[in-house]
Amino acid sequence: MKSDPLKCERLREEMVKKQIEARGVSDPVVLSAMRKVPRHLFVSEALRDQAYGDFPLPIGFDQTISQPYIVAEMTEALQLDEEDRVLEIGTGSGYQAAVCAEVAYRVYTIERIHALYLRARRLFDDLHYHNIVSRYSDGSSGWKEESPFDAIIVTAGAPEIPNTLVNQLAMGGRLVIPVGDRFSQELVKLVRDENGIRTTRLGGCRFVKLLGEYGWKDA
Ligand code: SAM
User: Is residue 219 part of a domain?
Assistant: First the structure.
């Protein structure tokens, strides 16, 4: 796979058409980012031939890289433009951060598992994603020193929406987060505007747990 970039490009094109556009994601900048980011490099060599399948894949440490459609849906919901500063909680493989980095000005991403943080950081360097800043810590409390953010994406399921993250949204800022119990969650979008916070429900989903001070306390 790694040595056949044309085949990967064809698989990405098929992924975008059959899994993403077909399900209603239509923002051209999101589709173009999904066509560009080499997803197969964000999974282990043993799983490369499955990287463009319509499912999540394991990335070690009981964690997963999300299904391509979910990545596209969440990125579209963030309504990013090229001046936006984005915070991601849950770097994992780094794939979602890379997709956001194709669209936004800068992406700040936080991971609580040291080995995943290191692996993703190395990959960002190798792929020249110089607009991604990564950090190893509990992201459930956000990244106050770099706030406010135009968009915040949480890629792990929270028992409730952490207020500390809502408080780090800029005026006009968007937060997308899976909220629910440990078995299933709903994707929720919050927008901060002059009138306060507007909430929309985007549908069901299933994520690993957001652990930490403002997430689940037990694994
Ligand atoms: N966005 C990732 C990607 O593109 O591969 C997928 C994320 S995976 C579904 C969830 C990640 O959130 C895991 O790597 C997990 O360790 C991380 N996580 C869970 N709680 C966290 C916390 N409080 N702070 C930072 N990362 C957290």
Answer: no
Question: For 39-56, how does the pLDDT look when each residue is reduced to its tens digit (9 = 90+)?
Answer: 999 999 999 999 999 999
pLDDT, one tens digit per residue, over 149-206 is: 999 999 999 999 999 999 999 999 999 999 999 889 999 999 999 999 999 999 999 9
Burial class (CB in 10 A: 0-12, 13-18, 19+), 126: exposed
Ligand 1 center–CA 96 separation, angstroms:
10
Taking the complete model, does pTM exceed 0.90, yes or no?
Answer: yes
Tokens of 161: 């929406």
Domain membership flag for residue 78: yes
- State whether the beta carbon of 139 lies less than 6 angstroms from ligand 1: yes
32 is catalytic: no
Question: Is any atom of ligand 1 closer than 6 Å to the C-beta of 120?
Answer: no
Instruction: Catalytic residue, from 26, 32, 44, 66: name it.
Output: 66
Mean pLDDT of the chain: 96
138 CB under 6 A from ligand 1? Answer: yes
Non-local CB neighbours of 197 within 8 Å, separated by 6+ positions? 166, 190, 191
Give the CATH number, domain containing residue 69.
3.40.50.150
Within a domain: 35: yes
Range of the domain at 11: 5-205
Residue 212 inside a domain? The answer is no
Dist. CA 194 → ligand 1 center (Å): 31
Q: How many domains does the chain have?
A: 1
Give the span between the Cα atoms of 105 and 29, in whole angstroms: 13
